[in-house]
Specification:
With about 150 residues, this protein is mostly beta strands. It has three helices and nine strands; from the N terminus they run H-H-E-E-E-E-E-E-E-E-E-H.
């Protein structure tokens, strides 16, 4: 059996899976590839009952926005780009700081204020896992402004 069949899923499929929400069905994907291909600020790739996988693209000079999730934990893996992650117990006390880039991951415990700032010259490409689910099934937000507008609806 060739490597493509071992590590590519269905040999009859010529195109990678669509970048759309595939939850709550079983799903396999080359996560590094789809993360790098994503051009939206946020797209839900899989939404289940207790867990959600989203893709994000953060433009140079942009950030995710200082936020806190009181009742969920979050895992973020950066595939490309560079930034600064800050976290803390209060929005005015962010005592955790780390420079991150492609290959780095970080975990945000429930109740921690956090932000990720793109400090590089190209978009940060990342995927994020929320437990429990944070965004509605099928979420696609082309820009940060779209995401902020959706939060205020």
């Amino acid at each position: 059996m060739d490597q493509k069949n071992l590590c590519g899923g269905n040999p009859n499929r010529r195109q990678p899976p669509a970048i759309t929400d595939h939850g709550d069905k079983p799903f396999a994907v080359n996560i590094a590839r789809v993360t790098r291909q994503n051009r939206t600020y946020r797209t839900a790739l899989w939404t289940g009952s207790h867990l959600q996988l989203t893709l994000m693209s953060i433009r140079p000079g942009e950030d995710i926005g200082l936020e806190v999730h009181p009742h969920l934990d979050q895992f973020i893996r950066i595939e490309d780009g560079a930034g600064l992650v800050v976290m803390g117990d209060a929005k005015d006390h962010l005592d955790f700081r780390a420079n991150v880039c492609g290959g780095y991951a970080f975990i945000i415990p429930a109740g921690k204020w956090h932000n990720l700032i793109n400090t590089g010259a190209r978009p940060i490409k990342l995927y994020s896992i929320y437990a429990p689910v944070q965004h509605p099934y099928g979420t696609v937000q082309k820009t940060r402004e779209d995401a902020e507008a959706a939060e205020h609806d």
